[in-house]
Write a structure and sequence with these properties.
single chain; 43% helix; 15% strand; alpha/beta; Cobalt-precorrin-4 Transmethylase, domain 1
């Protein structure tokens, strides 16, 4: 009975929070300055994670403005975890736009959607990334191109790393992992295969507590580098950071 009550309270709290996000996006965002909007996104993301009982444990000394951030990708929660620390302009798959409510809010929060397999779309977004970085924005994307099972890191696609080279900024890799109360990789956050967004959402809501570790790794210089070199170096840095915790495969 207590478990059901707690679940329904979470649903009610989440609904109110999302409706508040809609209100802010419709009526307040158009009048807010850039920094105030970032602060609002950060606070809203922190509150969202609190509703899901997701506790963020950070190991990060610096997040540079005007930088390119890349991370391994595990869950739809990843965007909100990173935004709870440092709001970014994310590049994400166009599928995310179809998420109920949260997809629309992600778009209004500055997420840039990339249509799969469209080279012209990649070129358009690539130039947009350069412009955003030049304007002092933090830009982030998930170079695996999709979510992976915890314990595995997919190959990093190199195309969008070109933006760091032309914008003359370093790449900062982030390493993410979600843990149970006993320190094991958390199965409830898995968002792979045939798992729908709604099913994943319910799985997360049913958990008492999830801890996410967010490690900001050393900057990788883009000066004189090739995009494939940046992709390989970023994947290696993320892999080594996660392997150090002993839970990820050595590949």
């Amino acid at each position: 009975m207590k478990i059901k009550l707690r679940y329904h309270l979470k649903i009610a709290h989440l609904t109110v929070h999302i409706l508040h996000g809609f209100f802010v996006c419709f009526f307040i965002f158009p009048w807010m300055k850039k920094e105030a909007k970032k602060n609002k996104i950060q606070h809203w993301s922190q509150q969202l994670l609190s509703i899901f009982n997701v506790r963020v444990r950070m190991n990060l000394t610096n997040v540079s403005s005007g930088s390119l951030i890349v991370s391994n990708h595990i869950s739809w929660l990843d965007i909100f975890v990173i935004n709870s620390l440092a709001p970014c302009r994310f590049v994400a798959k166009s599928d995310i736009r179809s998420w109920p409510m949260l997809g629309w809010l992600a778009e209004k929060g500055g997420t840039i959607f990339l249509a799969h397999g469209k080279k012209a779309d990649v070129k358009r977004i690539y130039q947009h990334l350069i412009d955003q970085i030049a304007a002092g924005e933090r830009v982030a994307f998930f170079p695996e191109g999709g979510t992976a099972t915890q314990g595995e890191i997919l190959p990093f696609h190199a195309n969008l790393f070109e933006a760091a080279i032309h914008a003359k900024v370093p790449v900062q890799p982030f390493a993410l992992r979600y843990l149970t109360s006993t320190g094991e990789l958390h199965p409830a956050v898995e968002f792979v295969g045939d798992i729908s967004f709604v099913t994943s959402l319910v799985n997360v809501l049913n958990e008492d507590e999830i801890t996410v570790e967010l490690n900001g790794l050393a900057f990788i210089s883009s000066e004189g580098a090739h995009r494939r070199e940046l992709a390989a170096a970023s994947r290696s840095a993320v892999t080594l950071a996660l392997q150090a915790e002993g839970e990820y495969e050595r590949k």
